[in-house]
């Protein structure tokens, strides 16, 4: 593969990450996941499978849930990104984070940031989701530890508490 | 071998015309990338056929839906989420909605596009059988102009299509004349969520005066390309649904499919399930109509 003469240039890419404007240099095909973790030190976003199956690298891009392992940096140029670090910037937890704690919805923690962002996207669309809607909203996020029941309960509880932030 | 981003070029010209110009200059050099749900996986595995990519994500010319004449034209860059949010898609083309809902999780539905699904040409793609039964046509565009192709003729062989290297799919055209049909999509996979199909069926049927006036059946994952079950349809069309007809249709389906053994299933299981899905469809079709 590397015998190609092509050497890509890195480009200046401007993003808003968790409310702050950031300019950085990245190869256009660098994965958004690596830009967040390595360039910006935002290691809350996890890499699980690296192929869009597990959802642990989920972030919000322009308000929409995406797998950051499948987003080339250039496609994120100009975008507004929210990672798990952006949810409680002042240490004040959002309702969904608090209900994850209260319901014991996290164990090893690798899936948790993606789960919470997927849950947040769901709750914005459906503030009081049914169990089926929760299952569908989180279908792209895999967990090896909890068996999911506590996670579903945490999302339902956040809906019952009825406050997103 | 894992890919390194410094070996790859990606450009985002921003307009359809600029992308088509690039493709016209050096057609085989550039690989279009939309939401990346397939291309980025191949990229990470070091399996892309080229190291130069051109982004067609979010091109406005490809991301709109409009009714033209009696058909809905869906821009090839529309995501599954776009499809699910569109009333006309849900009302007129429930099989497509159903496929969109069962493809991946929310994050992939937010990025995966209908055009990308067609061009990726996986025989297991859930949306493709629905396009076959709805008699979709594709608008293919290059710098030199546009041509229209029935979707049934698009797939040539396993992952080979009629798309020329300098072309993009601009839109998928669906005639709006199937809303009165009984419609049912069925996906059989290892799990309900986030699993690629072992077999998937899209079916449309209409019974008039107790007789099957029209029937359209298509399957994914049972041949190198998604297929319409024309021989099975012919056996059923114009007849009353009886246990014997269901049995004949099941056998015709098993004879018509060409499945393989692979990591997800076996040829034998797939053929049996394909026959069962067709039998189930016919039984539901007759029950559905008798209720009315």
Write the layout of secondary structure elements.
The complex is a heterodimer of chains A (165) and B (292).
Chain A lengths: L10 E7 L2 E7 L5 H8 L18 E4 L2 E4 L12 E3 L12 H8 L9 H14 L5 H7 L11 H13 L4
Parallel strand pairs in A: 1-5
Antiparallel strand pairs in A: 1-2, 3-4, 3-5
Chain B lengths: L8 E3 L4 H10 L4 E4 L5 H6 L7 E4 L9 E4 L2 E5 L4 H5 L2 H6 L1 H9 L3 H6 L2 H7 L6 H7 L3 E6 L2 E6 L4 E3 L2 E2 L6 E8 L6 E8 L7 E12 L2 E10 L6 E2 L1 H7 L6 H14 L10 H24 L2
Parallel strand pairs in B: 1-3, 2-3
Antiparallel strand pairs in B: 4-5, 5-10, 6-7, 6-10, 8-9, 11-12, 12-13, 13-14
For this entry, give a set of tags.
heterodimer; A: alpha+beta; Ubiquitin-like (UB roll); DNA polymerase, domain 1; 2 domains; 5 helices; B: 292 residues; alpha+beta; Uridine Diphospho-n-acetylenolpyruvylglucosamine Reductase, domain 2; Uridine Diphospho-n-acetylenolpyruvylglucosamine Reductase, domain 3; five-stranded antiparallel β-sheet; 11 helices; 35% helix
Description:
The complex is a heterodimer of chains A (165) and B (292). Chain A is an alpha+beta fold and 165 residues long. In chain A, 30% of the residues lie in helices and 15% in strands. In chain A, strands 2-1-5-3-4 form a five-stranded mixed beta sheet, sandwiched between helices. In chain A, strand 1 and strand 2 form a beta hairpin. Chain A starts with 10 loop residues before the first strand and ends with a helix. The N terminus of chain A is likely disordered. With 292 residues, chain B is α+β, with helices and mostly antiparallel strands. Chain B folds into three domains: 51 residues, 2-Layer Sandwich (Uridine Diphospho-n-acetylenolpyruvylglucosamine Reductase, domain 2); 116 residues, Uridine Diphospho-n-acetylenolpyruvylglucosamine Reductase, domain 3, CATH 3.30.465.10; 109 residues, CO dehydrogenase flavoprotein, C-terminal domain (Enolase-like, domain 1, 2-Layer Sandwich). Chain B is 35% helix and 26% strand. Chain B contains eleven helices and 14 strands. In chain B, helix 9 runs antiparallel to helix 10 and helix 10 runs antiparallel to helix 11. The model of chain B has no long low-confidence stretch (mean pLDDT 93). The interface between A and B is large, with 43 and 39 residues.
């Amino acid at each position: 593969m590397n015998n190609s003469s092509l050497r890509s240039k890195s480009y200046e890419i401007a993003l808003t990450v968790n409310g702050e404007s950031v300019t950085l240099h990245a190869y256009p095909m660098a994965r958004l996941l690596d830009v967040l973790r390595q360039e910006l030190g935002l290691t809350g976003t996890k890499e699980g499978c690296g192929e869009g199956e597990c959802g642990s690298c989920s972030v919000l891009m322009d308000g929409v849930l995406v797998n950051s392992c499948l987003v080339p940096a250039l496609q994120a140029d100009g975008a507004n990104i929210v990672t798990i670090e952006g949810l409680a910037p002042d240490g004040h937890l959002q309702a969904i984070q608090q209900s994850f704690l209260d319901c014991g919805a996290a164990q090893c923690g690798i899936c948790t940031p993606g789960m919470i962002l997927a849950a947040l996207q769901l709750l914005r669309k459906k503030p009081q989701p049914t169990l089926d809607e929760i299952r569908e909203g989180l279908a792209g996020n895999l967990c090896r530890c909890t068996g999911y029941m506590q996670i579903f309960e945490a999302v339902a509880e956040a809906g019952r508490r009825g406050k997103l932030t | 071998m894992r890919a390194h981003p410094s070996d790859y070029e990606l450009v985002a010209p921003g307009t359809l015309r600029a992308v088509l110009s690039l493709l016209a200059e050096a057609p085989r050099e550039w690989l279009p990338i939309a939401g990346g749900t397939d291309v980025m996986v191949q990229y990470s595995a070091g399996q892309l056929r080229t190291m130069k990519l051109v982004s067609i994500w979010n091109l406005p010319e490809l991301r709109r839906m409009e009714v033209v004449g009696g058909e809905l034209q869906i821009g090839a860059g529309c995501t599954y989420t776009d499809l699910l949010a569109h009333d006309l898609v849900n009302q007129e083309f429930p099989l497509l909605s159903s496929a969109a809902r069962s493809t991946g999780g929310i994050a992939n539905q937010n990025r995966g596009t209908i055009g990308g699904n067609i061009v990726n040409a996986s025989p297991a793609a859930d949306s493709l059988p629905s396009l076959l039964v709805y008699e979709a046509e594709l608008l293919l565009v290059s710098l030199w102009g546009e041509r229209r192709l029935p979707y049934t003729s698009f797939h040539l062989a396993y992952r080979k299509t009629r798309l020329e290297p300098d072309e993009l799919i601009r839109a998928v055209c669906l005639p709006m004349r199937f809303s009165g049909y009984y419609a049912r999509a069925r996906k059989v996979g290892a799990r309900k969520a986030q699993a690629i199909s072992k077999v998937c069926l899209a079916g449309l049927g209409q019974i008039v005066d107790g007789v099957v006036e029209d029937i359209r059946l298509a399957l994914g994952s049972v041949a190198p390309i998604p297929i319409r079950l024309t021989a099975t349809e012919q056996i059923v069309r114009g007849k009353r649904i009886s246990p014997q007809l269901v049995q004949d249709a099941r056998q015709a389906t098993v004879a018509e499919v060409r499945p393989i053994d692979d990591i997800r299933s076996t040829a034998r299981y797939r053929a049996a399930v394909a026959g069962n899905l067709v039998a189930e469809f016919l039984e539901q079709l007759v029950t559905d109509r008798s209720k009315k």
